[in-house]
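Open question from group meeting: does this chain pack into something compact, or does most of it stay loose? Before anyone orders reagents, we agreed to write out a predicted structure and look at it together. Recording both the input and the output here so the notebook holds the full record.
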Amino acid sequence: MRRERLSGGPHRPRLVRRAGFWITFGVLVLLAVAFWAASPSAPPTARLGSPGLSSPPAALPPFVSDQPDLAAIARRAEIAAEEARLAALRDARRHLEQELEALRQSAEALQPEPPSVAPEALVRPPGPLIAPLTDADRRLRIVVLHRANSAPAAAAASAVAETLRGSGFEVQALRGASFVPSTPVVRYFHDADRAAAAALAERLGQGWVAQDFRAFQPQPAPRTLELWLPVS
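Structure tokens returned:
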């Protein structure tokens, strides 16, 4: 009887076996949970809750603002306004050019045609009336201009050129022009050529005058004179 009390009675071996079973089962369950929590496929919360393990923080998605880019919108508006302003200026310039052309055509239509003058009435014949040329006269370069597309004007220019060459002047060219002055003129372009232009106009006679064209740009070379005939 005393031996049974010391050993726990007849049921003690059974209780020991049952307790050992549950202890073993619990240990196995804990090992399984720990293994599952440590595996890569486990949820982050399970890995974070596992002892000795840590998980890096998940990457946050990029920030996307719902607000519009006000600076870009303002810049686009400025560019659009500048393009509209330039387009308006181009239209205004085109309109002004059209008006200027219309005014020019109107002025041409209102300009009276100069009376026809015979070529021999414009130039003195070479001879005693033409004084001997100086060295400065021989260095002059003369260009004779007449109304373009006009046979009488071309004939008058040829007569003037022949008279000048016969007197010893150098005539470089004969040219046609769309517009000619109403009176025959000798144009000079440099202050040093003023006296030569006045002397040549006096030699030619019949209403020829020297005309100051020093403000013209671009200027021809010094010692260049232009003779303009008004013959239509």
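Observations to bring back to the group:
The beta strands are 141-147, 171-177, 185-188, 209-212, 224-228.
The CA atoms of residues 140 and 223 lie 5 Å apart.
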